[in-house]
């Protein structure tokens, strides 16, 4: 579903508010245990993941361009991932979707968190399409010339049949 610019703005504000509220929640205490704040490296990693998701959301409705890697002209799937990671974390993930898969580590679907990558076999070859997992079974990707950069649900028939797996560029 595509939103008109007015509604897309409201949706983005709602998403930002929701992410801020989730990010501000604290773990519950169990009897006999005291709360240990996350280490600085864990906190920094969490901020980087949020930055990846927010940067990806800012790319919604951008044009799809085969071999596209630039903000003002458009993206293909790997170009979008490369751009988002470079802008939000400084990490360079260059090349095709398969190249990016080779540069990242495999993780289980139940271990995937927002900011990780999700790979699909859309061209009859492994890892031929990549998107950025944003949580709740959804991902952002540069789909095609008609739809551009958008959010889809991994469980949708088309994507579920082509799912290759999840990978992380984070330690």
Descriptive overview:
This protein has 171 residues and is of the alpha+beta class. The chain has a single domain (5-22, 42-168), classed as endopeptidase domain like (from Nostoc punctiforme) (endopeptidase fold (from Nostoc punctiforme), Alpha-Beta Complex). The chain is built from five helices and eight strands, in the order ααββααβββββαβ. The chain has helices spanning 5-24, 40-58, 77-89, 97-103, 157-162; strands at 69-70, 74-75, 105-107, 117-120, 129-135, 138-142, 149-153, 163-168. It has a six-stranded antiparallel β-sheet with strand order 3-8-4-5-6-7. Strands 1-2 form a two-stranded antiparallel ribbon. A hairpin with a 2-residue loop joins strand 5 (129-135) and strand 6 (138-142). Helix 2 crosses helix 3 (77-89). The protein is globular, with a radius of gyration of 17 Å.
Keywords:
single chain; 171 residues; alpha+beta; endopeptidase fold (from Nostoc punctiforme); 6-stranded antiparallel β-sheet; two-stranded antiparallel sheet; 5 helices; 8 strands; 38% helix; globular
Map the helices and strands:
Blueprint: H1 5-24, H2 40-58, E1 69-70, E2 74-75, H3 77-89, H4 97-103, E3 105-107, E4 117-120, E5 129-135, E6 138-142, E7 149-153, H5 157-162, E8 163-168
Antiparallel strand pairs: 1-2, 3-8, 4-5, 4-8, 5-6, 6-7
Q: If you consult CATH, what is the topology? A: endopeptidase fold (from Nostoc punctiforme)
Number of helices: 5
**Number of discrete domains:** 1
**CATH evolutionary superfamily:** endopeptidase domain like (from Nostoc punctiforme)
CATH class wording: Alpha Beta
- Biggest β-sheet strands, sense, barrel: 6 strands, antiparallel
Tell me the helix content. Answer: 25-40%
